[in-house]
Design goal:
Layout: E1 2-3, H1 5-9, E2 17-28, E3 37-44, E4 58-63, E5 72-84, E6 89-95, E7 107-108, E8 110-119, E9 135-141, E10 143-148, E11 157-162, E12 170-174
Length: 191
């Protein structure tokens, strides 16, 4: 599922934030459970699921046997907050284990969105996690995201070291939005 940064900005959330949880409004609880439920999140330039996302996502939530209740929000609190730059579209990847077919996998409140989400399913095939999306949908789950303040020291991305010798190295990184960095050069000891 893709949630556009502009859609979030329009709700008054701007600038770099951490996202610490995601909640789904469950309209029909899954009858067979959703074992090994995993939620991963990342940033993407894609606006819809018209092509297979190839962006990196990081696992932020896992529950071997989550509990879902009909007619209420179910909040999934992240084990590791996701650092959102306040601009990028957010890619949410959900996967669950190879559950035997016992009835509905549940339903959540959705809203219209052209190719906003996608899925793949196949009976008796085992886990399809990391598989290509089979079907794009013109709806996506309505979610509640919990935003927090960004860390006081934003980590740089794309760290690299090259031309390493016994006395020198070339160090590079990409600055996180609106961040400034100080660095120390030393032969030993801590800052």
């Amino acid at each position: 599922t893709i949630y556009p940064g502009a859609e979030i900005n329009a709700k008054g959330i701007t600038g770099t934030h951490t996202i610490t949880s995601l909640a789904y409004y469950v309209t029909v609880a899954p009858s067979g459970g959703l074992t090994n439920f995993t939620l991963s999140i990342g940033s993407t330039a894609l606006a819809s699921i018209t092509v297979q996302p190839t962006d990196a996502v990081s696992q932020v939530y896992f529950n071997a046997g989550p509990t879902w209740a009909t007619g209420t929000w179910t909040t999934l609190t992240f084990s590791t907050p996701f650092l959102w730059d306040g601009v990028s579209n957010i890619l949410v990847d959900v996967c669950h284990g190879a559950d035997p077919y016992t009835g509905t996998n549940g339903r959540q409140r959705t809203y219209a969105s052209s190719a906003g989400s996608g899925y793949i399913t196949q009976d008796g095939s085992g886990s399809l996690c990391s598989s290509l999306i089979g079907t794009a949908l013109n709806t996506k789950p309505q979610v509640q995201l919990t935003f927090g303040a960004p860390p006081s020291c934003l980590p740089p991305t794309g760290l690299s070291a090259s031309a390493i010798t016994t006395t020198s190295a070339t160090i590079g990184w990409s600055a996180t939005t609106a961040a400034t960095y100080n660095y120390d050069v030393r032969t030993s000891g801590a800052a």
